[in-house]
Amino acid sequence: MYIFGVLNGNMISNTCKYGIRAILYIAVNSDGEKKIGIKKISEDLNLPGPFLGKIMQTLAKNKILNSVKGPHGGFSLAKAPEKISLYDIVKIIDGDDVFHECLIGVKICENNPEYTNLCPFMEKSHKVREMLEKTFKEQTIGEFAKGINSLDEFLQI
Amino acid sequence: MYIFGVLNGNMISNTCKYGIRAILYIAVNSDGEKKIGIKKISEDLNLPGPFLGKIMQTLAKNKILNSVKGPHGGFSLAKAPEKISLYDIVKIIDGDDVFHECLIGVKICENNPEYTNLCPFMEKSHKVREMLEKTFKEQTIGEFAKGINSLDEFLQI
DNA sequence: AGAAAAAAAGAGTTTTAACTCCAAATAATT
DNA sequence: AATTATTTGGAGTTAAAACTCTTTTTTTCT
Questions:
Q1: For A71-87, how does the pLDDT look when each residue is reduced to its tens digit (9 = 90+)?
Q2: Please, are residues B145 and A121 in contact by the beta-carbon 8 Å criterion?
Q3: Contacts (Cβ under 8 Å, ≥6 apart) of A88
């Protein structure tokens, strides 16, 4: 769907999508204590293992995950799943530009936290985008996990 | 704002942003008949000329622009600016996945035009995303152009 | 007809996101 | 203490988006 190449809907990077899916997997499959390893997660979710490893590292550094090395090691959630929002993960991995940046990239919209003097489209769209941001902030991993019925639902397109 | 590299808000590709800005530039600076060349547009908007050329080609192929070769040639809008929406341009250049694709990339949400059996987050977010799509559809180039006060407002971040 | 000015087309290069590989560190088990 | 299973860290490679360069085609003007 991209004139000069591939590109699919790119609102959230693959890196970030993988991170979210992995965290959901842990929330569903661990009681909060049990550690789950990258090998198992990447096999079950069909994600590139070594790459997922990097993502998990950054989530661990950012206090979303706990990690333990060695036999029986792996990752577990560092907080209650109800305390982790999708926004938290997006913020860490992609940043929050996607919710704030001018959609057509014009100068006057930037560095404008008060939303004054916006381009005409930013004027019309910034409220919808704030709603989108709110949707990410209100969606917790805990609630999401409850709504998942089967492993199949995690799988990549 | 990206863990492993750069990445800014990537909802709309740069290619598409350049296309939108160039069309706006034409809408503001041409009466509808006058042709404007890539050289002038790219210099004034501070965009890479040859790359913008490619983008203009695809917009011309898709009946958004008229192009005329040779001296006094250049590009003009192929329709009334009120008949061109931002959505039209996004659809041509990036595709519309950005409005429909599952935000965390899970399988069950795909090929689901009726929006049945969605993942819990898609369930909660698809209405906001439809609003976003509507915002793009309702924003015409004509109306946008009226709201622009100076060339400066076009310029890239 | 010839020259000049523009877009079109094709084949590149560069940069960045996505992904891999390997060695080192750490922790548990025997 | 040695072995094994795991994460961590660093340095790569690959693929796709972004961008460039050069040649060809078309049109206008003299």
A1: 999 999 999 999 999 99
A2: no
A3: A64
**What would the pLDDT profile of B26-68 be if each residue is shown by its tens digit?**
999 998 889 999 999 999 999 999 999 999 999 999 999 999 9
- Which residue, chain included where needed, has tokens 């946008």? B144
Chain A contacts in chain B segment 22-81 (CB below 8 A): 24, 54-55, 58
By C-alpha distance, which of B113, B127, B154 is closest to B17?
A: B154
Computed from CA positions of residues B17, A118, B99, A44, in that sequence, does the dihedral angle turn out positive or negative? positive
Q: Residue A63 has which token pair?
A: 């206090």
Taking the C-alpha atoms of residue B41 and residue B77, their distance in angstroms, rounded to an integer, is 14
Task: Sketch the domain layout of chain B as residue ranges.
Answer: 14-148
| Helix count and strand count (H, E) for chain B | 7, 2
**How is domain A1-80 classified at the CATH fold level?**
Arc Repressor Mutant, subunit A (1.10.10)
Q: Which residue has the tokens 């919209």?
A: A109
Nucleotide nearest to A2 (CA to C1'): D17
Determine the Cα–Cα distance for residues A139 and B130; give it in Å rounded to an integer. Answer: 18
Q: Is the CB of B19 under 7 A from strand C?
A: no
Exposure b/e, B128-144, CB count within 10 A at least 16 = b: bbebbbebbeebbbbbb
pTM for the full model?
A: 0.92
Provide the 8-state DSSP code for B66.
Answer: E
**CATH class for the domain made up of B14-148:** mainly alpha
